[in-house]
């Protein structure tokens, strides 16, 4: 057997679909150890997991590579007209007892009063207590759906290879990395 990407015979077992997307292992034994399993996995799988985190977290799927934790996803939050960016695993984290959000313009901090008071450069007179239940909160989450197309393409190529149809992959791999 040879690597489906480059023809190397130094093979390892590679996840066809990251376990963080399925809660299970789907293995392909036809991927070279260093160049495509390790490097490709690091670059591609982390991007796929990040882009789909909001979906997999809602489905209660955790990654074995993340020590059994939910993957983080990027979100944009607008609270009373002020924009914040955050990386979270769930909406519950937005107002957790240790989470402090800094506005995009750097002029506002939002978080538990005890956490805000720990910040040395903040004057007590600048702190304003707010009731989050009375605030207008809007959340925007962006998902890059092109990652789905790339993943489906790779799955298709793997299926062809496992069925005995070996295609030249080098030019296709560079196209995939350009899409990421």
Spell out the blueprint of helices and strands.
Blueprint: E1 11-15, H1 19-22, E2 27-32, H2 33-51, H3 53-58, E3 73-79, E4 82-88, E5 101-102, E6 109-110, H4 113-117, E7 137-140, H5 146-162, H6 170-179
Antiparallel strand pairs: 1-2, 3-4, 3-7, 5-6
Q: Would you give an account of this structure?
A:
With 180 residues, this protein is of the alpha+beta class. It contains 6 helices and 7 strands; from the N terminus they run E-H-E-H-H-E-E-E-E-H-E-H-H. The chain has helices at 19-22, 33-51, 53-58, 113-117, 146-162, 170-179, and strands at residues 11-15, 27-32, 73-79, 82-88, 101-102, 109-110, 137-140. The strands form 3 sheets. Strands 4-3-7 form a 3-stranded antiparallel β-sheet, with no helix packed on it. The protein has a two-stranded antiparallel sheet with strand order 1-2. The chain has a two-stranded antiparallel sheet with strand order 5-6. Strand 5 and strand 6 form a beta hairpin. Mean pLDDT is 76; it is low at 169-173.
Find the structural class using helix and strand composition: alpha+beta
Largest sheet: 3 strands, antiparallel
Query: Radius of gyration over alpha carbons?
Result: 22 Å
Helix content: 25-40%
Into which percentage range does the β-strand content fall? 15-25%
- How many strands in all? 7
Give the distance, in angstroms, between the N- and C-terminal Cα atoms: 28 Å
Helices, by number, come to 6
Strand line-up of the largest beta sheet = 4-3-7
Principal-axes geometry comes out as: elongated
List low-pLDDT spans: 169-173
Mean pLDDT: 76
Helix-strand topology string: EHEHHEEEEHEHH
């Amino acid at each position: 057997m040879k690597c489906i990407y480059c023809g190397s015979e130094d093979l390892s077992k590679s996840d066809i679909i990251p376990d963080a997307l399925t809660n299970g292992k789907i293995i392909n034994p036809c991927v070279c150890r260093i160049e495509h399993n390790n490097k490709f996995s690091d670059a591609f799988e982390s991007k796929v997991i990040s882009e789909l985190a909001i979906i997999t977290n809602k489905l209660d799927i955790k990654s074995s590579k993340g020590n059994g934790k939910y993957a983080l996803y990027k979100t944009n939050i607008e609270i009373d007209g002020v924009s914040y960016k955050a990386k979270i695993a769930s909406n519950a984290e937005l107002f957790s007892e240790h989470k402090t959000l800094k506005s995009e313009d750097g002029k506002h901090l939002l978080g538990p009063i005890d956490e805000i008071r720990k910040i040395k450069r903040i004057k007590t007179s600048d702190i304003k207590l707010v009731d989050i239940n009375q605030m207008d909160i809007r959340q925007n989450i962006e998902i890059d759906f092109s990652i789905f197309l790339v993943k489906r393409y790779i799955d298709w190529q793997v299926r062809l290879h496992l069925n005995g149809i070996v295609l030249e992959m080098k030019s296709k791999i560079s196209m995939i990395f350009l899409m990421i």
